[in-house]
Write the structure tokens for this entry.
Amino acid sequence: MSSSPVDISHISGNASDNTKQALASVHRLFTNRTSNPNAGPVFGESIQKRLKVTEISVNQKAEEPQRLEGKVVLEATVEEDMLNGGGIIHGGCSAFLIDICSTLALIALNLETTQDAVLSVSQALNVVYHSPAALGDKIRIVNQTLTVGARAHSVRTEIWNVTHHRLVSSGTHIKMQPSAPKKANL
């Protein structure tokens, strides 16, 4: 995913160093998708640059020990570009964080089990908003895979306000592997 090494000494968990290297820089993972040097910034790029991965693990599921689950935890501080007009984290920002961060748990599980990062697209995203996070609050984003099927995958994400010890939002993200494009009939 990235050719130059990233410092992974701060990332806990039982995932391999290769998986930690691949997922340590959220910004490089999600914005390095184009070879166009003149391409502008991608949505949420400044927020992605501030996300810090703190844990990557793959464990047996407690409820189904013959299955594995991926877990990725990230942290960030709420800054101006994440706020709504009321001075708290915008619901759209929470949904964005759930979208990209949940994807990391799926990639971690795939890298650890197949050594391949299977790309997928969003099919559905359900978000529940519980309490606010204000400017300067530290948040922790905890992502755990629920199911990984042949085409559909699901992840549960919780965004915690570390500063005030409360749940900010939670979400379930359903992703799928896209079908190959059909060839045009000319």
Notes: The CA atoms of residues 28 and 35 lie 13 Å apart. DSSP finds four helices and six strands in the chain. Helices lie at 17-23, 26-31, 45-50, 91-114. The first strand starts at residue 52 and ends at 60.
